[in-house]
Amino acid sequence: MQNPRWVFKHLLILSLLHAFSGGTAAAAAAAADDDDDQTHQTNPICYEGDRAALLGFKNRILEDTTESLSSWTGKDCCNGGWEGVECNPSTGRVTGLTLQRPGGDRDDSGAHMKGTLSSSLGDLHFLEVMVISGMKHITGSIPQTLSNLTLLKQLVLEDNSLGGTIPSGLGHLTFLKAVSLAGNRLKGQIPESFGNFGLVLQLNLARNLLTGPIPPSLKNLHSLQYLDLSFNLFSGTVPDFVGQFHNLTFLDLSHNQFSGQIPISISDLSNLLDISLSNNKLTGRIPDQIGTLRSLTTLSLSNNLFTGQIPESISRLQNLWQLNLSRNGLSDPLPAGFTKGLPLPSLLSIDLSYNDFDFGTVPNWIRGRVLADVNLAGCKLRGTLPVFSRPDSLTSIDLSDNYFTDGISGFFRNMSNLQKVNLSHNQLKADISELSLPEGLSLLDLHSNQLYGSLYKVLNNTTSFLEAVDVSWNRISGRIPEFSEGLSLKSLNIAANRIAGHIPDSISNLIELEKLDISRNQITGTIPTSLGLLLKVQWLDISINGITGKIPKTLLGIEGLRHASFRANRLCGEIPQGRPFNIFPAVAYAHNLCLCGKPLPACRGKKKEQ
Known about the structure:
By secondary structure, the protein is α/β, with parallel strands linked by helices. It is built from five helices and 37 strands. The chain has a 21-stranded mixed β-sheet, with helices on one face. Strands 10-12-14-16-18-20 form a six-stranded parallel β-sheet, with no helix packed on it. The longest helix is centred in the N-terminal third of the chain and has 34 residues, at 4-37. It is globular, with a radius of gyration of 29 Å. The termini are far apart. 42% of the residues are buried.
């Protein structure tokens, strides 16, 4: 299931950006229609000062793999096809600069710009929209001269590598409606001058290194609809004036160092759809007034220090589809409203993991409903794994760190849409070769149980969707099976079992593999040279087995290797003399028969040559 919170967040951003740019675009379109009607008129070429300002920006960009700036040639920046540049067709003044990485947030092409932001951008005095986002390698500080752009309505400089502090002069831009500086390396505090943003609808400063409290001046942002300060180092309390943002629909203060209690005033945010206060140091009880947020769709309070019981009022949130209260100190009993009728009728995802609950069995109101994600790790569940009344709706299950002993053999029956499952750290006992896994499964974590049998069916009778398998610390025996082509495995951990035999040459078919751990088994034979074909491997552990022969030099082809351990085998000969093998710590090669060469002492023949 795609994270509904992520979907909502991005739909909201897109709608806001569309609203801000709509006026400018409509005006441009109307002007274009007028020009069509008055064919005797011609659009003026761009103002020379604006052209010079744009070329000043271009000159500070040392590398542009997006190729956007390659179109910036000629004297007319308005009608000459300059990518990302918009002008007022009547005046020839630049009103919009929009440079975004092709493909947006999920682009993996590596397209970027490298350089710094020129102070000449502050000379675009008629600019209303500035979007320079996703360029990854634009460094340096935000130019102070941007405070000259007094007509600016939209400022988006997100997902670059900008550093330094946020210029306080930005607070002079009182026509701003959207500000996003997210995804940079900005430090220091939020300027007090941001309190001048009386028209701002969206403020996004997420994913930086900002510190200090939320400044009191932000209470003046009465129009605010979207506030994201997540993934920073903010501290202090969540200010009571947050409850004055009556138009707020999205609030994310997660992954900071906020302390104290949730202010009761949050209950005044009647339009709030999405709130996340996760990963802070918030204390006390979850206020019962939170149940008055009748529009709420997502509530995430995980990884804080909350105590007491879940408020009864939460069971009355009719529109809530995601509830995450994990990793706190919440305790029994659950609200009585959770056991009556159908509480939380819109719920699709629930996470109550790692609190002080002692459930015994999975509650009926969870088992008996349509859910996509169920996370009840560390809830002191016992006995047989639960049977869900609608298994076909489940996409993710985490029941790890409990005391289940039985029921895994038929657990996956009818879970046709399951993608991720974690049943690790239980006491499950069964023959792993008899498990019938869903075809679309991408993650399987069964480590630290009492499973036995052969791995053949798990690793080869699956579709190419399976990306991560962890069955370590069980009682699995047999051999490592041959691997067919077309598998998508990125992580394979079969450590600490009773697996014997040799490493098959066909392991080279796992071309997507990034982590391989076969340590603490009874594997013999030699390391196949074909292992060196796994060019994406970053973690390799074959320690504590009975492997003989040499470490093949073909492994030097794995240039991205970050961790390797060959210790406690029966290996002999020279360690491959090239990075990273000759700079791994000596302990990575300890307790073998006769390995030599850096980082161990030189081989005998090499000593004589020296």
